[in-house]
């Protein structure tokens, strides 16, 4: 979050810029410098600012891609100037985006009998926003046709309490009640026993998550689809499912093709995924697809001219660089189905190794193992009596360069403090071994540090969070 600094004391840029006429001249930090500087110096100043940034390869906190091949980055650098929205100047670019949507439609089993439709976005947040708006407008149309009194109650969206913040934003922006199905220790994903109790005629849709950001767990979409099907048979107010597959959308189709979660399920009408998570592209790129264009109300489709013809657009953002779309297409061609599968299986193997080692330390209980996504989420064993907390362990790992967040689970599971390791393609087995060695050393240090009393530390620090 960026706050104004206007009233703060001016701190000029203080590092010396050797061998230039600017050596003695400080640059202001929070005002525009009056005169420009040479490119070499500008570049140096910016690079200096970034030297003590975290090391992306040791960042086990993010789902976002931190490595791409040099050929991909070169291609992306070359295409930075292409404006993705300018479909008349760049028709080939438009064709590439179109191919990507088709490739993804195929991966997610869009039916040939229906006309799927989709778009690239900046990420899953924009994609979820679009899917949410489509659900809201479709519901309005249905409600109007059925003569429902829309002034009586706000429309609502049903989702597990493990939702990502983009859904809170969507509901706030569009004045929709976010109906959380609480997670508890027995139900660490959408609770299938109670979910339908939250649905009424004002429900615009149910969101299933593949997987939950806090833990990596999947919602059971197959069961949800069956419950929704039963509801729709019995009720005159049908409800449909959107799948937030930000991370699973580019993982499951390759590694676990047997799990039905996508358009194979009748009531799943739209899906989003982040190209910059397991789609292996640098941020930011996302995708959203609807199984049939009838689920995307027409007033959400805007036409732009395209080589004298018309081309539909539905994304929220207008101008942006096409380089991420190019990066996605490069990856699709470069890796193919087998390549994605191999990369993800390798990452999964690394996750299984880390899980095994974590268990063998004897300190941790797994909240989510590597059975699906290569994301590990664990707590300190309840019965274990150590003078440190997971927060202390995060701090010690940080000293060794590793970013491994510790945070309380979602709202009503605040007392469940977890630590999470997200394995990505650039975490090789060698690095994983080093991570485990560093983890064991950290634990040893913490066990031997008599100065810290863990229980007091927790009381004093309280719990602190992690921005997902
Ligand atoms: C990461 C994530 C998002 C947000 O995705 P961005 O691509 O970062 O905008 C939404 N939902 C889930 C489940 C996520 O994991």
UniProtKB/TrEMBL annotation:
Purpose of the protein: Converts internalized glutamate to GABA and increases the internal pH. Involved in glutamate-dependent acid resistance.
In-chain residues carrying the UniProt-annotated modification N6-(pyridoxal phosphate)lysine: 277
Entry keyword annotation includes Acyltransferase: no
Family: Belongs to the group II decarboxylase family.
One Pfam family cited in the UniProt record for this chain: Pyridoxal_deC
GO cellular component: cytosol
Keywords, in A-Z order: Decarboxylase, Lyase, Pyridoxal phosphate
One BP annotation, GO: L-glutamate catabolic process
Cofactor(s) required for function per UniProt: pyridoxal 5'-phosphate
InterPro entries: Glutamate_decarboxylase (IPR010107), PyrdxlP-dep_de-COase (IPR002129), PyrdxlP-dep_Trfase (IPR015424), PyrdxlP-dep_Trfase_major (IPR015421)
SUPFAM superfamilies noted in UniProt: PLP-dependent transferases (SSF53383)
Gene Ontology molecular function, alphabetical: aromatic-L-amino-acid decarboxylase activity; glutamate decarboxylase activity; pyridoxal phosphate binding
Documented EC number(s): 4.1.1.15
Catalytic activity: L-glutamate + H(+) = 4-aminobutanoate + CO2
Protein name: Glutamate decarboxylase
């Amino acid at each position: 979050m960026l706050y104004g600094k206007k009233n703060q004391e001016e701190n000029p840029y203080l590092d010396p810029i050797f061998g230039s006429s600017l050596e003695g001249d400080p640059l202001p930090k929070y005002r525009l410098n009056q005169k420009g500087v040479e490119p070499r110096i500008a570049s140096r100043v910016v690079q200096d600012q970034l030297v003590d940034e975290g090391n992306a390869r040791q960042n086990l906190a993010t789902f976002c891609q931190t490595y791409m091949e040099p050929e991909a980055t070169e291609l992306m650098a070359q295409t930075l100037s292409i404006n993705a929205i300018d479909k008349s100047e760049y028709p080939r670019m438009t064709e590439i985006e179109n191919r990507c949507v088709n490739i993804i439609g195929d991966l997610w089993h869009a039916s040939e009998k229906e006309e799927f439709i989709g778009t690239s976005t900046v990420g899953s947040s924009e994609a979820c926003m679009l899917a949410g708006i489509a659900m809201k407008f479709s519901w309005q149309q249905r409600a109007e046709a059925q003569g429902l009194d829309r002034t009586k109650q706000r429309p609502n969206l049903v989702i597990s309490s493990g939702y990502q913040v983009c859904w809170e934003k969507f509901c706030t922006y569009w004045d929709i009640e976010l109906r959380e199905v609480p997670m508890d220790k027995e139900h660490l994903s959408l609770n299938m026993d109670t979910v339908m109790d939250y649905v009424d005629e004002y429900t615009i849709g149910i969101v299933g998550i593949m997987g939950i950001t806090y833990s990596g767990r999947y919602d059971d979409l197959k069961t949800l689809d069956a419950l929704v099907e039963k509801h729709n048979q019995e009720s005159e107010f049908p409800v449909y499912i959107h799948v937030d597959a930000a991370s699973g959308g580019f993982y499951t189709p390759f590694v676990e093709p047997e799990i039905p979660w996508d358009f194979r399920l009748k009531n799943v009408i739209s899906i989003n995924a982040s190209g910059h998570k397991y789609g292996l592209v640098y941020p930011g790129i996302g995708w959203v697809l609807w199984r049939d264009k009838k689920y995307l109300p027409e007033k959400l489709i805007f036409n732009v001219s395209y080589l004298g013809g018309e081309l539909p657009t539905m994304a929220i953002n207008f101008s942006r660089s096409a380089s991420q779309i190019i990066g996605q297409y490069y990856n699709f061609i470069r890796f193919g189905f087998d390549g994605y599968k191999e990369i993800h299986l390798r990452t999964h193997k690394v996750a299984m190794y880390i899980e095994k080692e974590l268990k063998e330390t004897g300190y941790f209980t797994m909240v989510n193992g590597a059975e699906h996504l290569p994301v590990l989420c664990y707590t300190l064993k309840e019965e274990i009596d150590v003078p440190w907390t997971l927060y202390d362990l995060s701090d010690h790992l940080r000293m060794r360069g590793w970013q491994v967040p510790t945070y309380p689970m979602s709202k009503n599971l605040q007392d469940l403090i977890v630590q999470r390791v997200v394995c990505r393609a650039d975490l090789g087995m060698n690095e994983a071994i080093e991570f485990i060695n560093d983890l064991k050393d950290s634990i040893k240090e913490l066990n031997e540090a008599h100065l810290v009393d863990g229980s007091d530390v927790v009381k004093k620090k309280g719990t602190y969070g992690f921005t997902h």
